[in-house]
Design goal:
Distance between the termini: 98 Å
CATH class of the largest domain: Alpha Beta
Shape: elongated
CATH superfamily of the largest domain: Band 7 domain
Strand content: 15-25%
Structural class: alpha+beta
Radius of gyration: 34 Å
Largest sheet: 4 strands, antiparallel
Low-confidence stretches: 58-75
Helix content: 55-70%
CATH architecture of the largest domain: 2-Layer Sandwich
Mean pLDDT: 79
Number of domains: 2
Order of helices and strands: HHEEEHHHHE
CATH topology of the largest domain: Tetrahydropterin Synthase, Chain A
Amino acid sequence: MATTKTPQAAAPLPAPKPKSKRTLLIIAVVAVIVLGGGGAAAYWMWAGSRTATDAEATAGSDTESDSQGEGAAKVKTKVAEDAGLVEFPGFLVNLADAGGQAYLRVTLSLLVADEKQAKLFAERPALKSLLRSSILEVLALQTGGVLVTPKGKEELKRAIVEKIDALGLKVEVEDVLFSDFVVQY
């Protein structure tokens, strides 16, 4: 009789060890620390550059008021105390650039001589609409390349004041104040 050998069963492989929760916890803690540190560094860099910019602006305004003398500073304060404000909702205008692809989004207010003049526009919507239309006409004549410069903004202010003066409305515009100014190409 022949004996048959039965193959021996292969030894079972050891079951893989489950990853410990401790390892996952350590990875999570390290990730939080790295991300938190990066966020803090970005915040301090942004805050530091913002403080430097504010300091430069303050230094520049101090120099400007010193060069103009104390009389100019008093006049500006007096205008701010007595002046009225005529606010306009945002304007969106195609600019006069070649190709017609550029536009301007601007929100502005007119600083007028006194509060009485400002109330006149609040009480008479037709008068305010006339001003808005005139301002739109001036804005539509501008080009983006000029408007992005400080000199271009000053010229725009001057053109708006001149257009309003030409209407003969008996309103004294002291300044044009921009609160939003975006040129898109």
